[in-house]
Amino acid sequence: MVTKGTTDVLTTGAPVGSCVAVCLWEPTTGVGGLLHFLWPDSKLNPERAETEPACFADTGVRRLIDEASRMGAIKVRCKVRLVGAAEIPDREQADRWAKRNLLAARSALWRSGLFLEGEEVGGTKARRATLMVSNGLLSVAIDE
User: Three-state DSSP class for 13?
Assistant: First the structure.
């Protein structure tokens, strides 16, 4: 989701476990965006990628950047942070997906010419992310 406004708040809603949330904010235009993707590569499920591109790092990051640009965001001014990629115990192969998702997010951003300002990733607990579009403040809470 991408928005432009002083009172808008974007949140992951659901906890981000082995998934990754890409939080983007462009301070000059006030454009903010948040992508919560599930899988690293749209080739894993091309049919779903057609209808739900935001489920995948490669297609989701591209869509996030395109939507932010359409609203006036300039890539070189964007501040991007990642949240998630936790290795949740008792979830089958969570560590494998978490690592792949994190690498895919970093790679998609790098290929798009965006660089990370920060990350809150890893560990064994899911998180919830909230982005205040008015000032770019990102708050992250551990999901207990």
Answer: coil
**Amino acid letter, 23:** C
pLDDT of residue 13: 86
Which pairs from 87-93 meet CB under 8 Å and 24+ separation? Answer: 87/18, 87/122, 87/123, 87/124, 88/17, 88/18, 88/124, 88/125, 88/126, 89/124, 91/17, 91/18
For 101, list phi and psi in degrees, rounded to 5: -65, -45
Q: Are 36 and 16 in contact (CB under 8 A)?
A: yes
Domain limits of the chain?
2-123
- pLDDT of res. 5: 79
CATH architecture, range 2-123 = 2-Layer Sandwich (3.30)
Q: Which tens digit of pLDDT belongs to each residue from 71-126? A: 999 999 999 999 999 998 876 665 689 999 999 999 999 999 999 999 999 999 99
For residue 68, which of 58, 55, 79, 57 has the smallest C-alpha distance? Answer: 79
Other CB atoms within 10 A of residue 74 CB: 12
pTM: 0.94
